[in-house]
Amino acid sequence: MEQRNVASWNAMISGYVKNGRGWDALEIFKLMDLAGMHPNDITFMSAIDACADLQALLEGQILHAEITASGTEPDAYLRNALLHMYGRCGSLAMAESLFDDMPDRDRWSWNVMISSYAHAGHTRRSLAFFAEMALDGITPDGVTFVAVLGACSHAGRVDLGCHYFVSMSTDYSMARDVDHDLYVCLIDVLGRSGWIKEAEDLIANMPFQPDSVAWATLLGGYRNYGSLGRGAQQAAQCVFQLDPEDSAPYVLLHNLYKSGRRRQEGDGDFEQAMKPTMGYF
């Protein structure tokens, strides 16, 4: 191109980010600066998203400083991008400070805080943000409840997980049958806490055809509690059939075989059933 404007630079940076090439996106951002082209909010948003994907906290902090130094007041979208970046990078204190200073917090802002604390294992803080979200008059959505159920799963709180799952329809009139991820999260809550039978019942009666993620999540529950009977056979075989290229379930089973722990009656049948897959190892 003979002449490159801000839009053309933005297209390149955004394209690299969307294709999972965050470092290349940041290199283009640097070249843009060297070319004397001033970034706008869209440029900064793409670069911040790259830092979030890479969990590159230092680079994200440098970009945040550049935004502040530019004298331009960031809009709600850019503030949320910064919030997401700090949350992904595990800088929760900075994320919360930024959140507290936001004049226009929306559902996305609250979801970022709830999910960031949930992923970090801070269940109480995550659920506290969920309660504050309601007090602030913001209605939760499916993304909110996926984060909330994730927090319950990390804490092994089946009671809370089931409570929030039910409250979606009773308290918020939300249809639970529109989001497959919600059911996968509840399977995880049950499986992590040893409620394997209940997890089996849920996957058998969910209003979707279970995908490989759902079966793999159930398989993880069997792993956690050493249940390697016929239920685990079915879960493993379903994962293999639905996503034969995914190496994770193969590695999981391989490690279970090698460890020699948690073997139960029926393992011989299990090994026989998995025999066609063992060439992978």
TrEMBL record:
PPR repeat windows: 5-39, 75-105, 106-140
Top-rank taxon: Eukaryota
Q: Offer one example of a GO biological process linked to this entry.
A: RNA modification
UniProt keyword list? Repeat
Question: Mind listing the GO molecular function terms for this protein?
Answer: RNA binding
Protein name in the entry: Pentacotripeptide-repeat region of PRORP domain-containing protein
